[in-house]
Every structure is written in structure tokens, then in C-alpha cells.
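Methods — Computational structure assignment.
A single polypeptide chain was analysed. Its primary sequence is given first, followed by the predicted tertiary structure written as C-alpha cells.
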Amino acid sequence: MKEKKLMFVNIDASKKLKASIYLYKDKKNNCLINLHKVFENETTFSGDDFFASFCKLRNWVYKKGQLFPMCKGALINVYPSRMSRQMSNGMKAYYLTLGKQAEMNDIVDIFEPIREDEIIKLSTSEQQTEYFKKWIKSL
């Protein structure tokens, strides 16, 4: 089990909340993220990879308190390729720029903290998926 510290923030950064998450795989090879003591005692999110689990966590936290995790995987222009999902269990994704093919130097860890000036790029998982589709069409 691997622990990560995350900061959650609302879009205008007026509200912040610190939390710990724990990443692990179960016996069926599902990727699980356990969110420790945020809104409730403990909540676990499961998916085929950690990005899928992270999207479920993001949706839940947004519905509960309109908060976004302050990490690269929550930015509107960060999304994993099928290959990166398979090779990294969804832990790596690409910075995407409309009209530009993603390259190796665009790869980021989805749990890497963001800078304060990137808060305006935080998004819901639905907005992120829409941006990814728009990026695909722009190539």
C-alpha cells in the first residue's frame, strides 16, 4: 500500500483540505484508492487502473464539496493514453495541447502536485474527457 498526500481545493482557492490516499491492488488486480477521513471516515474507489479509480474519487469529492484534488491528473489538459494506462496502471498521463501530438516529455505522474497558478485548469472528469476528445479531433 502506497500513501500519497493530497490537497483538495475549490476553484477559487478559498477552501483547502488536506487528505491522505492509499493506493493498492486487490486479489482480482483491481486498482484501489482509499481516501482517508474526508467527509466520512474512509471511502474506497476501484477501477481497472489508478486513473479510473482517481476519476471516481474526483467525482465523489466534487459532488460532496465542490473540491478538486491539486494534482496533475485533475487538470483539464492531462489524460492518459491507452498504452500509458497499461504500462503504468494509469499512474502516468500526458499534458495535451490542442493541435499537437503528445510526446514523451509531456508525461506526468497523475498525483504530482500542481502549482497555484494551475488551479484554474482543474476540472471534473467529464470536462477532462471532453477536452481529450477535442484534442483527438484537433490532430
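Note: The longest strand covers residues 16-25.
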